């Protein structure tokens, strides 16, 4: 899954405000559905997501938009290109990001080895996630894609406990990212609930009841091989 998040734990407003490095970064609030940046914008900053969810998209040759990833707290945005942003970034929820000017990234990393190490680790994670997504699109079934997606979002949501979480994105965004039709995602979500593997307590609030079954699907199992459970 090309979903970034939860990694940059050593960087904070306090880190950016060290005596030797005044005014190196600024905090920016982005309202839901507003863009953090657009494709083709000058890549003059890296962005560390401090709260909220962002979707990354790219415009295809026919003018349609394709969601290529999601990011939440701990993600670093702006690593995917050199001079200009090759993706757009739109806030799904209200988002707070810390902006690191590109001209100061090297200097900050020299003064903060922990941040430099985490930047490299995040690059590796995002590369690995992109490769996994390429493999998933071509080889996984709808059930397998959806199972992996739900587990990933559950693990990344800050308020996740006992398998419960609020879905930050709409099902249309899920379908676009997973390479499925909206009708397919809705049908499979209903099937997972009917089988007792998840429970949708509202349109967006989900509880994973049988994580073991979803993990089995994500690792290559099939829905037909998994039990149907009675909802409690």
Rg, rounded, reads: 19 Å
Number of strands: 12
Oligomer: single chain
Low-confidence stretches: 5-23
According to CATH, what is the class of the largest domain?
Mainly Beta
CATH superfamily of the largest domain: Jelly Rolls
Structural class given helices, strands, pairing?
Answer: alpha+beta
Helical percentage: 25-40%
Count the helices. How many?
Answer: 7
Give the averaged pLDDT, no decimals.
82
Which percent range describes the beta-strand content? 15-25%
SSE order: EHEEEEEEEEHHHEHHEEH
Task: Tell me what you see in this structure.
With 232 residues, the chain is α+β, with helices and mostly antiparallel strands. It has 2 domains: 3-135, Sandwich (Jelly Rolls), CATH 2.60.120.10; 140-225, Arc Repressor Mutant, subunit A (Orthogonal Bundle), CATH 1.10.10.10. The chain is 37% helix and 23% strand. It has 7 helices and 12 strands. The strands form 3 sheets. It has a 5-stranded mixed β-sheet with strand order 1-6-5-8-3. Strands 2-9-4-7 form a 4-stranded antiparallel β-sheet. A hairpin with a 4-residue loop joins strand 11 and strand 12.
